[in-house]
Design brief:
CATH class: Mainly Alpha
GO molecular function: DNA-binding transcription repressor activity; metal ion binding; transcription cis-regulatory region binding
Subcellular location: Cytoplasm
Largest sheet: none
CATH architecture: Up-down Bundle
Distance between the termini: 28 Å
Organism: Kribbella antibiotica
Helix content: over 70%
InterPro entries: Metal_Tscrpt_repr, Metal_Tscrpt_repr_sf
Family: Belongs to the CsoR family.
CATH topology: Methane Monooxygenase Hydroxylase, Chain G, domain 1
Structural class: mainly alpha
CATH superfamily: Metal-sensitive repressor, helix protomer
Radius of gyration: 17 Å
Order of helices and strands: HHH
Number of strands: 0
Strand content: under 5%
Number of domains: 1
Amino acid sequence: MHGYASEKSSHLKRLRRIEGQIRGLQRMVEEDKYCIDILTQVSAATKALQSFSLELLDEHLSHCVVAAAQKGGAEAEEKVREASDAIARLVRS
């Protein structure tokens, strides 16, 4: 079971809201809205995705990585490397 399983419903609800924000951006462009207004909405959607990413990462660390660390060995090393790589990707984005 994945670390986010207990929050799956909440995560899906959040992602649907973000999807709605993106559709709103498309609509704004189609309706020739002011650039700054569109950029403000892009910033809000970006922040929502970043917030979701951090929550998912936290759940991964506290569930998957901790469980692997308790077992030790190669699986633990792999989970730590995966988490480290994910953090690096988030920092670069």
